[in-house]
Design a protein that fits this description.
Helix content is 80%, strand content 0%. By secondary structure, the chain is an all-alpha fold. The protein is rod-shaped and about 75 Å long.
């Protein structure tokens, strides 16, 4: 309904919300990447010396 009544206002509000969510998304991505790297490190077998 708001898109019909005020399309430019709704579009501007959606843009502002999107811009505000970008830092949250970036922080979440980095947190998940760090967790994945930690899992990979813990899954790697311990290095052993040949012989």
């Amino acid at each position: 309904a708001i898109m019909i009544a005020e399309p430019w206002g709704a579009l501007a509000a959606a843009g502002v919300i999107y811009i505000l969510l970008l830092p949250i998304s970036r922080r979440s991505f980095h947190r998940l990447r760090r967790a994945a790297e930690d899992l990979q490190e813990s899954d790697e077998p311990a290095p052993h010396s040949p012989g």
